[in-house]
Amino acid sequence: MSASELPVRSPEVKSQAAKSDAQTLPAQPLNLNVRKAFAGGFALDVNVSIAPGITILFGPSGAGKTTLLDCIAGLTTPDAGRIAVGEKIFFDQAHAINLSPQKRNTGYVFQDLALFPHFSAEQNIEFGISQLPADERREKVRAILESFRIGPLSSRKPQELSGGEKQRVAVARALVTNPRVLLLDEPLAALDAATKSKIIEDLREWNNAHQIPIVYVTHSREEVFALGERALILENGKITAQGTPHEVLSAPRRETVAQLAGFENILDATVLTLNEDRGTMTCQIGASILLETPLVRAAIGETLRVGIRAGDILISTILPMGLSARNILPGDVVSVERRDMIVAAKVNCGVEMEAHLTLAARDSLALEPGREVWLVVKTHSCHLMQG
Amino acid sequence: MNWQALWLTFQLAALVAGILLVIGLPIAHWIAFSRWRGKFLIEALVALPIVLPPTVLGFYVLIALGSRSPIGRAWIHLTGHPLAFTFQGLVIGSVLYSLPFAVQPFASGFAGVNPRLLAASATLGASKTKTFWRVILPLSIPSVITGAVLSFAHTLGEFGVVLMVGGDIPGATRTVSIDIYDKVQALDYASANATALVLLLLSFVMLAVVYGLNRRVGMVGR
User: Fold this and answer.
1) pLDDT surpassing 70 at residue A234
2) CB-based contact (8 Å) between B131 and chain A?
3) B123 touches chain A (CB under 8 A)
4) Is A167 a residue whose pLDDT tops 50?
5) In a domain, A124, yes or no
6) Is the domain of A270 the same as that of A360?
7) Dihedral pair phi/psi, residue B167, rounded to 5°
8) A187 in the same domain as A239
9) Contact yes or no for A114 and B120 at CB 8 A
10) Does the pLDDT of residue A3 top 50, yes or no?
11) I need a labelling partner for B199 at 20 to 30 A (CA). Which of A203, A218, A291, B48 fits?
């Protein structure tokens, strides 16, 4: 599915959009056609249409993500191309149009947030709408303070705010101006997952009512799954993939002799479900074992191979509780064999798996054939390869 | 102790510092943010008074203000009296002489403001003027105070330019430094010492205030 085909998320969203204030612009895509070369050989060359809603711009450091946002905001001028939101042209080299940042009305949340240190949270938010009459301005600031839950902090200076609070103020400052497009440059990278997801929820709710293109830059794989309905992969200045997070992610690795060498356990696995929101998928191994693995580009029903290093598997003699590991497989010890300074235990969980432990661990667990045990395997200890 | 000379000097220094605040801020803004390739020429021009002997600067100012120059003639036409050897002429000479002491701290303060804050201001729709008054200036206050106080203190102590442009007219152009020179010439060391001591203490207190202020602001964390 391409980005432009994506509809609004639900019927409820449509009704909310209709109710929102009259200033809201109709949903308009951001059309980007940007070329810019830099001394040293790096060149940005992007041609893409970004629909209203959250689009993740994902790529390694130095791929050109921030430069692309700066081009959209007017802080950097491309060599050639065209940038427009709907009918509003920001930049058109062919027609010598290049609006100043002041006239583009983009909401830009910078990587370092760039809150004005000498202003309170409220003054920061007010800054972009100071041309409005006082009544209207106060009402808008009050509303956005409330929707981003920062009302009680309004008189604090940025240095008196926590990381998450600063992020909220920065997002609110950008949104209160009713921007045509919202640009977020790794704004939440430094936050813990819980704070992050709350801010994202508030942002989603705001966007349900306003429907503007939101470009969210990240280099974190986890954020791609947590946030985006759509993702663009930017590598070395070029868009190399676009689609849902699942579609654009890396394919499972080719299974080669070299890769096989590191894995004592190589199992056939059938993909049962894709949990795109969590970045995992569930695979079936043998007749009945379910294994949660990292998400790769795969279809339901497809057969892959899962490689698990024997050293990555824990053995427990009682049913483990309260562990973060997602896979706990019951089985029976088949054999316990000493190899130099480690012990290789073979366990039958429906399929036979090998786990390594130390001599001391073997003694304290009193492992012997026939003993009932549980194998513990972390999701990210499961390495997926093509069959 | 020549109170007339001290009062005159104080008036001159305050006026010069005030004028430099008005014309120095835009010049500093231009120096800090212009991308013109020939900018270094203007920077060099502004810095000239630091290295030039005051007599050289004073000489050219005198020529420029004299009754034969267009500026001098225009002034006579407007006011009826010449510009050279007057308080007004002294103000003009001193403004030029102290220009770098105001502009350089201003410009380095402006250039030190995080560029992302200026970018944020622009994306929030603020004009260059609004960005200057509400972001750049408030965040450069220590530098602006430094520039104003330095230009004030520098004018207090000037000698060569005053002698060249203003001469030695009591109540009009006789400043403290000229007065001290006169006293020494007349071998009146006691009066010279009294006036010199006042100037020394005044200058020290002022510089101490500037550095003390900057230190406190520095600790708050800019």
Assistant:
1) yes
2) no
3) yes
4) yes
5) no
6) yes
7) 75, -140
8) yes
9) yes
10) no
11) B48
Pair (A293, A359) in one structural domain = yes
Residue in chain B lying closest to A104 (CA):
B123
Is the pLDDT at A143 greater than 50? The verdict is yes
Q: Is the pLDDT of residue A299 over 80?
A: yes
B88 exposure class (CB count in 10 Å sphere: 0-12, 13-18, 19+): middle
Residue A293's domain spans which residues? Answer: 257-386
Residues A87 and A231 in one domain: yes
Name which of B104, B114, B168 is nearest B136 in CA terms: B114
Region B29-40 average pLDDT: 92
* pLDDT per position as a tens digit, A321-345: 888 888 999 999 999 988 888 899 9
pLDDT band at A252 (very low <50, low <70, confident <90, very high): low
CA of A105 vs chain B CAs: smallest distance (Å): 6
